[in-house]
Design brief:
The protein is an alpha/beta fold and 583 residues long. Helices cover 29% and strands 12% of the residues. The strands form four sheets. Strands 1-2-3-5-4-6-7 form a seven-stranded mixed β-sheet, with helices on both faces. The chain has a two-stranded antiparallel sheet with strand order 8-11. A two-stranded antiparallel ribbon has the order 9-10. α1 links the parallel β4 and β5. It is globular. About 1% of the residues have low confidence.
């Protein structure tokens, strides 16, 4: 068993910088500039052999063209972490909106969408060639058909090929975040206008960032996360925590469980660096699933009304098939037969994307409210039958959580042979006093459709932009490290999580806050109104001032359209812009 080691001394910052303009996104308008910035910064936490590309970190920068050229002169700078298996392009819809709304008040803010280091392992050859040819089939031939481009062929990477990603945990992620902030705002005194945010997994990372002490010296606070993010934090559809159990209030227990948990963590880390570091398994491979998703996004962006031929382009093999059956079946038989999956219907490319990600089709949490099918539909009975939540007393009580993650209101086309189109979010019927009736009435309405599927397709199209909507190789260590750091394993690199507050034991022993949300700085927690995360409020772990946005799903909080059906400005970006610019 390897011995836990202390955190290495962090270096100052990047030795090289590359900046490239990004154009072609209609969301930018004529008032927002987008650039792609790469920083050459070999990480002190990356010691295993790895590609040279992995010595770079990168981000997408949005700024007002009317504002200052230098980040240091902006009124506020928000750096945002994407979620699990998510890349910087997740934030394409939100970034320009925040910048634009702040500028409308006379304030100039910058929105920085971080692209985590693990994206260095991706092969973007097919996407770039398909964008140049304006034909998504070029990408399909490269990633799924074995066709070479300029002599290069796509190579499926095994977990062993990616062993080095087993080092890409919480400490590396926090350090990369620090480097970006210090690059943008080199003067520590200016970091009162530095804000840190994140979506989904990224939201949960804001807590450790606020509690992180990079030099492990409590006497020096310039490097502390709460000063690097001196303006506050913006968790989106997730929440910030530093010590949920509150072990900081019981030092003997803290030391004991950190030591015991640290031994377990060492074993986990060894496995992650020896074949289990990424979700690349014989049955289910993240890279192939994400390639299939991004191909659907590219097809919907390039040829929205054309009939989808993805079923002939993406193989139904063990790397993708179990995932598709678990997420898109109509009934439980489909887990075994796979007879009612997206490939089994005639769909336009836009409808195919909607079937994969709309909240009235996809299961669990990977969805947004983007409209509805333009064809006859029938309710699903998997994983929970439509209408079950409408059973008096029992339904609302027992099924409130499933209802908020999509169960009980999911549909699929009736006819396998009729071409089915898609009605966008702003083509939905108005809401009624009876609301949505998943059995007899409208399956959805304007109040629950908030994301423009055309913009969603543009963000998901990996061509024509330097970053992806998906992160094919999310290192599992960033998840396991976060669990250990917030629970029972704060030794070695994780000793840097020092500035903890609140928690259950602290509450019981010292009368401190039950919440372990960082209290040193301002906090704007945004939750989707139809997200299961709001139910965490029953445990008292949400800040009292959390904002719950009605009708939104998991992606909606960062992808919602600038023009909303209710005639109001998009709420998430409005709240963020106000938070960044108001004292």
């Amino acid at each position: 068993m390897p011995i836990s080691t202390a955190a290495p001394a962090f270096s100052v910052g990047p030795d090289r910088v590359e900046v490239s303009p990004v154009t072609g996104d209609p969301a930018l308008g004529d008032d927002v500039e987008e650039t792609y910035v790469r920083l050459h910064y070999p990480s002190p936490y990356s010691t295993m052999a790895h590609p040279e590309a992995c010595d770079w970190i990168s981000f997408v920068r949005y700024r007002s063209k009317q504002g200052p050229q230098q980040s240091a002169d902006a009124d506020a700078v928000l750096t945002v972490q994407p979620g699990t298996f998510s890349g910087a392009a997740n934030m394409n819809p939100q970034g320009p909106q925040v910048v634009r709304k702040a500028a409308a008040t006379g304030k100039f803010v910058e929105y920085i969408s971080l692209d985590r280091r693990a994206n260095c392992a991706e092969d973007r050859t097919g996407w770039e060639a398909a964008d140049k040819a304006r034909d998504y089939h070029v990408a399909a031939d490269y990633y799924f058909g074995g066709k070479a481009i300029d002599g290069k062929s796509y190579r499926y990477q095994t977990p062993q090929d990616l062993n080095y990603l087993g080092e890409y945990g919480l400490a590396l992620t926090m350090d990369d975040w620090r480097v970006v902030i210090e690059y943008l705002l080199p003067d520590p005194g200016a970091r009162t206008k530095s804000f840190c945010g994140g979506h989904s997994l990224g939201a949960f990372l804001t807590g450790p960032m606020m509690a992180w002490d990079f030099d492990q010296n409590a006497a020096t606070t310039e490097d502390a996360g709460f000063n690097l993010c001196g303006g506050g934090i913006v968790p989106e559809d997730g929440f910030a925590m530093t010590d949920p159990v509150g072990f900081a209030g019981a030092p003997p227990l803290d030391m004991f469980f950190s030591a015991v948990g640290g031994a377990v963590k060492n074993g986990v880390d060894w496995l992650l660096k020896n074949g289990l570091g990424v979700a690349q398994w014989p049955v289910l491979a993240a890279s192939e699933i994400m390639n299939a998703y991004q191909l659907a996004g590219m097809a919907a962006d390039q040829n929205p009304d054309g009939e989808s031929d993805l079923k002939t382009l993406v193989p139904a093999d063990l790397r993708t098939e179990p995932w598709m059956r678990a997420f898109y079946g109509k009934d439980y038989l489909d887990l075994f037969t796979g007879r009612n999956l997206p490939r089994d219907f005639r769909l336009t490319n836009t409808a195919a994307l909607g079937m994969l990600f709309d909240q009235n089709s996809a299961e669990y949490v990977l969805h947004a409210g983007m409209g509805y099918y333009d064809c006859p539909t029938v309710g699903k009975t998997y994983p929970i039958p439509n209408g079950l939540a409408s059973v008096p007393i029992l339904g609302p009580t027992l099924f409130i959580i499933p209802l908020r993650v999509g169960y009980g209101q999911n549909y699929t086309p009736v006819d396998h042979h009729q071409l089915c189109g898609w009605k966008n979010y702003d083509q939905m019927p108005a809401s009624t006093i009876d609301g949505i009736d998943p059995v007899r009435g409208n399956p959805t309405d304007r109040d629950h459709e908030v994301t423009d599927i055309r913009q969603f397709a543009r963000a998901m199209n990996p061509g024509g932009q330097p970053t992806d909507f998906f992160e094919e190789y999310t290192p599992l260590r960033i998840v396991t490290d976060t669990i250990f750091a917030l629970g029972l394993g704060r030794d070695g690199e994780l000793r840097q999580l020092q500035n903890r507050s609140g928690g259950v034991l602290n509450f019981l022993l010292h009368g401190d806050r039950w919440q372990s949300t960082p209290s040193a700085r301002r906090n704007l927690t945004l939750l989707s109104g139809d997200s299961p995360l709001q139910n965490a409020g029953y445990a008292g772990i949400l800040p009292a001032n959390a904002k719950i946005i009605p009708g939104y799903r998991h992606y909606d909080v960062v992808t919602a359209a600038e023009r909303q059906n209710n005639g109001m400005p998009e709420m998430a970006s409005s709240l963020i812009a106000n938070f960044l610019t108001q004292p």
